[in-house]
What does this fold into?
Amino acid sequence: TANIILVVAENMLGDKKVTVVFVLGGPGSGKGTQCSNIVEHFGFTHLSAGDLLRAEIKSGSENGTMIENMIKEGKIVPSEVTIKLLQQAMIKNENDKFLIDGFPRNEENRAAFENVTKISPAFVLFFNCSEEEMERRLLGRNEGRVDDNIETIRKRFKVFVESSLPVIEYYDAKDKVKKVLLHSHND
Ligand SMILES: Nc1ncnc2c1ncn2[C@@H]1O[C@H](COP(=O)(O)OP(=O)(O)O)[C@@H](O)[C@H]1O
Ligand SMILES: O=c1ccn([C@@H]2O[C@H](COP(=O)(O)OP(=O)(O)O)[C@@H](O)[C@H]2O)c(=O)[nH]1
Ligand SMILES: [Mg+2]
It folds into this structure.
């Protein structure tokens, strides 16, 4: 008789076993800046969900106009769009360690990512920063972004508190959150 071995593969992407760290925090909290520092020292590949969405707009894809309108309004783009971009980027890259920056942004993003990819994060880095400081940074960012204006910034802060903080609370309840406070009061 044959021995049947059932292998339950976790965190598999195709035939690659991956380590994922989610990097979360409010708009302008310094996610992108610190991801660049982490990449230099720890061999991760940085995937910014926002950058992938902006590249999708530029590429002239059929979803481009919808994505751009949602970003202008500070709204969260449908999960399937963002998850597909993240999945493609991870498959394309030879690395097996990824910092996913700015995703998941709501509970639906989080659950859909886990269901579709079967990947759960090793841990979550949470950049905690005051709205006053984040607003100052976003207004000074100068990257020509359509969403770095005071009207959209206010909407993004509201979406962060109402939709994104619950994701951090979800992982906090699993002891997966490492909280980072990264500014002094006089910077
Ligand atoms: N610790 C910090 N102190 C002061 N300015 C910062 C700090 N970290 C990032 N910044 C600046 O704040 C702006 C937002 O940072 P960024 O990394 O793009 O944030 P996020 O990706 O979370 O939106 C950028 O202009 C960046 O140079
Ligand atoms: O998973 C994501 C990541 C980003 N965005 C959209 O892209 C914008 C910019 O995100 P990014 O992380 O680049 O910027 P941040 O607001 O953190 O500075 C957000 O406000 C959303 O509209 C989204 O819908 N889903
Ligand atoms: Mg960013």
Q: What stands out?
A: Helices lie at 31-42, 49-58, 64-72, 79-92, 107-117, 131-139, 150-173. The radius of gyration is 17 Å. The chain has one domain: 15-181.
